[in-house]
Amino acid sequence: MSGRRRLLPAHVGGYVYLAVAAVCAVALWVAVQDDWRSGIRWFSVALVAGGAARLVLPESQAGMLAVRNRFLDAGVLVALGVTLFALATDIPEQPGA
Question: Taking the model in full, what pTM does it have?
Fold first, then answer.
């Protein structure tokens, strides 16, 4: 298989990464086209799910989710997800919107 390109991820983390990326892409589409709050909430849920997956997957199966230390990767993803969710929930409606 040295001359062939790999089309599928080699690790479970690669599939999780692709799922998170797909949900984020759909969430951004929803945010741009319809309700931005709903889209950002879905985006934040995907980030938290990616962080949780990074925390529970072993290093050998983390794949593209593994960038740095396990707890740093998971902490950054969860913190960003929780922050985005809180902002999407707490920002008041603008007049005329």
Answer: 0.83
